[in-house]
Amino acid sequence: MSNWFRRRATKLIRVGNISIGGGSPIVIQSMTNTDTHDLQSTLEQIKRLQEVGCEIVRISLPDIECAKLVRRIKESVTVPIVGDVHFDHRIAIEAIKNGVDKIRINPGNIGSEAKIREIVTVANEYGVPIRVGANSGSLPKDLTSLPRAQALAEAALREVRTLEKFGFENIVVSVKSSDVLETIEANRYIAKYIDYPLHVGVTEAGTLYNSLIKSSMAVGVLILEGLVDTLRISISGDPVNEVIAAKKLLTFLGMRKGVDVIACPTCARSVFDVEKVALEVEKILSNVEEDIKISVLGCIVNGIGEGKNADLGIAGTNDGVVLFYKGEIVGTYKLEEGLGKLKELTRTIVQEKLKNPAT
């Protein structure tokens, strides 16, 4: 894996069976968008997130009833669960007692320091970390005269110092903006003053295209600067897309093993639907955690060369497709038959790589 840049040194924080910071690999997070009261739907979504590679899942806890459901959720899944709590400190305490692995709170909206102390006392007793931070939609009024990135960082620092005042240091910190440059600058700023792990992302990044572009720029820059310990790529809609996007970002930066599907941009020479075939290949390999390069080309103009440089390649011909396996032509097929053969060869490659990781 890639070691060509230096990670920032931070404390090691344990969230269930997952380590954040302290030199641990960057952790992928997401959040359910189901009504937590609907236990079945929530469990189904958590399991879907885990299946595609989510390592920590956050759930919303709007009331005590949801906090009590944490125990049943924890009995049904193996991925660590973070409880998202606002306003009522009793919800956070109840969630901790019911087995939540981490709490996300904003001390500023919890109320008095006495209530924060109560949360800290129980969190210490159960060994549960707390995530604090700020985003661009909830800045304290007395900080609004500062540049926005600095205000975000200072707001988060204020929350950190509140917890530290009660002797609590089992902390993860997040500063997020919906603006790319503000997100970058806020994380750079706060990293100078604390050694707690940073949870990084662009908040309210929007729908798929906006989010992918914003998140790739902001999170990508901060990863390369060594400031990211855990991340969420926020996308409006199905949170499974967040996990897939995060895995791809880390894979393309050489920080995870995974699949790289190379597909041509298409032109009038394409003889099959390149996008459809490429998406099908990505779907087949969504759970693969091995370095595999697959080439999907709409015609043979570039297909021969590209296919030979990939583990597996498929290129269009006038009569169907030609398939490449480790640089050698396997044969020509009709499209559907070729896709079937592609799936078969993919399984073979995965098994070979599992048996011999050096290949």
Automatic annotation (TrEMBL):
Give the EC number(s) under which this enzyme is classified: 1.17.7.3
Any keyword 4Fe-4S?
A: yes
Q: Which GO terms describe its biological process?
A: isopentenyl diphosphate biosynthetic process, methylerythritol 4-phosphate pathway; terpenoid biosynthetic process
The IspG TIM-barrel domain is annotated at: 10-246
Name the Pfam families on file.
Answer: GcpE (PF04551), GcpE_C (PF26540)
Q: Which UniProt keywords apply?
A: 4Fe-4S, Iron, Iron-sulfur, Isoprene biosynthesis, Metal-binding, Oxidoreductase
The pathway that the record names for this protein is: Isoprenoid biosynthesis; isopentenyl diphosphate biosynthesis via DXP pathway; isopentenyl diphosphate from 1-deoxy-D-xylulose 5-phosphate: step 5/6
Q: What class of enzyme is it?
A: oxidoreductase
| Gene3D superfamilies in UniProt | Dihydropteroate synthase-like, Sulfite Reductase Hemoprotein, domain 1
Entry keyword Transmembrane helix: no
Question: Which residues are listed for [4Fe-4S] cluster binding in this entry?
Answer: 264, 267, 299, 306
Where does the source fall among the domains of life? Bacteria
Name the coenzymes or cofactors required: [4Fe-4S] cluster
Recorded catalytic activity of this chain's protein: (2E)-4-hydroxy-3-methylbut-2-enyl diphosphate + oxidized [flavodoxin] + H2O + 2 H(+) = 2-C-methyl-D-erythritol 2,4-cyclic diphosphate + reduced [flavodoxin]
Any one GO MF term held by the record is: 4-hydroxy-3-methylbut-2-enyl-diphosphate synthase activity (flavodoxin)
Signal peptide start-end? none
Q: What function does this protein fulfil?
A: Converts 2C-methyl-D-erythritol 2,4-cyclodiphosphate (ME-2,4cPP) into 1-hydroxy-2-methyl-2-(E)-butenyl 4-diphosphate.
Q: Check the record and name the NCBIfam families matching this protein.
A: ispG_gcpE (TIGR00612), PRK00366.1 (NF001540)
Family in the record = Belongs to the IspG family.
Protein name (database record):
4-hydroxy-3-methylbut-2-en-1-yl diphosphate synthase (flavodoxin)
